[in-house]
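Hey, resending since the last one bounced:
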Amino acid sequence: MIAEKDPYIQSAYDQLQEISQNKQKRLEYEARQKAILDHNQSMLEAEQRGREEGRELEAVSIALKMISLDIDDATIIAVTSLSPEKVKSLREDLERV
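The structure tokens again:
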């Protein structure tokens, strides 16, 4: 009933009827849906990785500023949540410059 009033809904309904009756079209539809879901998941994971990398870069930047102010490693670790090894590495890198 509703499909008869709205041409978009009618078109979608007709396509659904055709897909559900044709095995090959149904398989193509399912493959397309899977590809869309896989793409969306990949994009979400990439976005999350980007945010994590951004947080890491910000923590490193803060740590470098703190090292240049000669703040002790324990404080830097507490503030930035960087590992002791990372803070030591950053301090060594700054000393080489």
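The two ends are 76 Å apart (CA to CA).

Sorry for the duplicate.
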